[in-house]
Amino acid sequence: MRAKHQITADYGTDKVEHRRKPLAPEDQRFYDAAVTNSLPVLIQGGMGVGVSGWQLARAVSEAGQLGVVSGTALDLVLTRRLQIGDPGGHMRRALAAYPIAEVAERIIDRYFIAGGKPSDARFVGISMKREDPTRNLEDLLVASNFVEVYLAKEGHTGEVGINYLEKVQAPTLPSLYGAMLAGVDYVLMGAGIPRMIPVVLDRLAEGLSVEYKLDVKGAGPDGGFTAHFDPDEAMYGAIAPVKRPLFLAIVSSHVLATMLARKVDVPVDGFIVEGSTAGGHNAPPRGKRKLNEAGEPIYGDRDVADLEAFRELGLPFWLAGGYSYPDRVREALDAGAAGVQIGTPFAYCEESGMEADSKRHVLDLCRDGEARVFTDPQASPSGFPFKVVEIEGTLSEPDVYEERDRVPCELGYLRSAHEGDDGGVVWRCAAEPVDLFVRKGGAVEDTVGSKCLCNALLANVGLGQIQRSGAHEQMLITSGDEVADVARFLPAGAETYFAADVIRQVLPAGIH
Fold first, then answer.
1. Residues contacting residue 379 through CB under 8 Å, at least 6 positions apart
2. How are the residues of the chain apportioned to helix, strand and coil, as percentages rounded to the nearest 5?
């Protein structure tokens, strides 16, 4: 996979001349007027593995806003749903619509278990070789992203988006193409610098092969580690036209936004401006890291987004982190935003993919005034701060974390890539066995407090693995700071609420 070339500044320019460049200030008002009327006011956050699944995204889109599916680990989500018997038959129904029937049939034949696997049986694994995937893995990545978007768009005319993490780079290209095959309308990406995504989307829409430069630590400036994807090969020569979705970069600062809007050949189409109160992975504070008495990162004035700078870029933007109240939505609109993105209230609604018992438990904690979130600087092997809901019996408790056996990485989504002595890629994860991590060149201090998020997030949605020892992987729930107030969405006398209840309470009167 070590190539002699890299994606350069002029990559594909012959095919992307039709893409919009930043407009002159005097013309920007016309662009604003043209797009604002068709943009969603509310974007549902792309939360966790399977939490913002197709059911939730479809419910939000049917209500006239932008529903978003999580694109993380969809290859694993699809295969595990099939192994538990494909309740409702949804996976097989979507696979029946996949353009290459032979691929869909192979996936079903290999993974579907009628009636579901025994409760004490392990899930069958899939290859982690995502930087240079086997043909079967590439087929699975394309098909699984197709399935999730297909189901989210099924039966209505609303728009649907998909959310990816830039730091999970290796599966990005086939995942994007699978979502585009299903007609995805928006792609959202954060946790990194997604400078290459707009040109990749352009080329995929043209049916052209694409490359994606991987972030390999230790590789010199001439290092050429890339992932490659060819739509024609992926479709076995039966390539079909796909539309180019809009691309929204998830950022926390105007500096990064300026680069993505003005200093790349193909600019992004807009931004999600995410504050430190949002759930999941957060951008680290700027400057030297400081922790409060509880051990959480301290965010300061430098971490507050400069909205004037965003307005000057002339691209639509949405504000995220604490905007689930009508007055805050009005505040965002008055500040020049196209709208807001909210996640946490949707995470606990009926259509969310989170385990039902976990949702009820958090709602009970909220009603009792005991729902707490800890911004953990060490939990994520990625190195990004990660918000954790403190719940008894989950990995948020030190005793539960210490009791879990560290096992060699078998999922691999949050591994980091490093150049090895032989010039190849060495993958390591701070949550794997300490001696193994150190043998790969890692620092022992990086393993302290590091949690296996891949396994934990799958456990959150009822797809947790059973270790070879027989132990069940435990959950680790993530939410934004607004988790303390999600019980307000419950209708009087109800034990649960729906996505429509969230939308009705969040959007100000007269805004749809």
1. 386, 388, 449, 450, 451, 453, 476
2. 35, 15, 50
Paired tokens of 288: 């030297």
Q: Which helix (H) or strand (E) holds 161?
A: strand 160-165
Which of 132-146, 181-195, 219-233, 451-465 comes out lowest in average pLDDT?
Answer: 219-233
Token pair for residue 93?
């129904």
What predicted TM-score, i.e. pTM, was given to this entire model?
0.89
Please answer whether residues 180 and 243 qualify as being in contact, where contact means their C-beta atoms are separated by less than 8 angstroms. Answer: yes
172-181 helix and 135-153 helix, angle to the nearest 10 degrees: 40
Average pLDDT estimate for 131-143: 89
DSSP string, 334-352: HTT-SEEEE-HHHHTSTTS
DSSP 191-229: SS--TTHHHHHHHHHTT--EEEE--EET--TT--BEEEE
HEC assignment per residue over 266-282: CCCCEEEEECCCCCCEC
Residue among 43, 56, 65 nearest 337 (CA):
43
Q: Are 275 and 251 in contact (CB under 8 A)?
A: no
For 158-167, 287-296, 385-394, which range has the lowest pLDDT when averaged over its residues? Answer: 287-296
- Closest residue by Cα to residue 107 from 130, 150, 139, 77: 139
Dihedral sign (CA 37, 42, 48, 50): negative
Where are the chain's structural domains? 392-476
Q: CA-to-CA distance for 7 and 103, rounded, in angstroms?
A: 30
- The angle formed by the CA atoms of residues 427, 429 and 435, to the nearest 5 degrees, is 100
Task: pLDDT band for 129, please (50, 70, 90 cuts).
Answer: low
SS3 label, residue 158: coil
Q: What is the pLDDT of residues 349-394, one digit of tens each?
A: 999 999 999 999 999 999 989 888 888 888 888 778 888 899 999 9
Angstrom distance (rounded) from CA 451 to CA 231? 36
Q: Are 444 and 472 in contact (CB under 8 A)?
A: no
Instruction: State how far the Cα of 476 lies from the Cα of 453, in Å rounded to an integer.
Output: 7
Classify residue 384 as left (phi > 0), alpha (psi -120 to 50) or beta: beta
Beta pairing class for 216-217 and 210-213: unpaired
pLDDT at 19 over 50: no
pLDDT at site 263 = 86
Please, what is the Cα angle at 186 between 8 and 94, to 5 degrees?
A: 110
Q: What is the DSSP string of 60-119?
A: HHHTTSBEEEE-TTHHHHHHHHHHTT-GGGHHHHHHTTSS-HHHHHHHHHHH--TT---T
Please give the backbone phi and psi of residue 401, each rounded to the nearest 5 degrees, phi first.
Answer: -60, -45
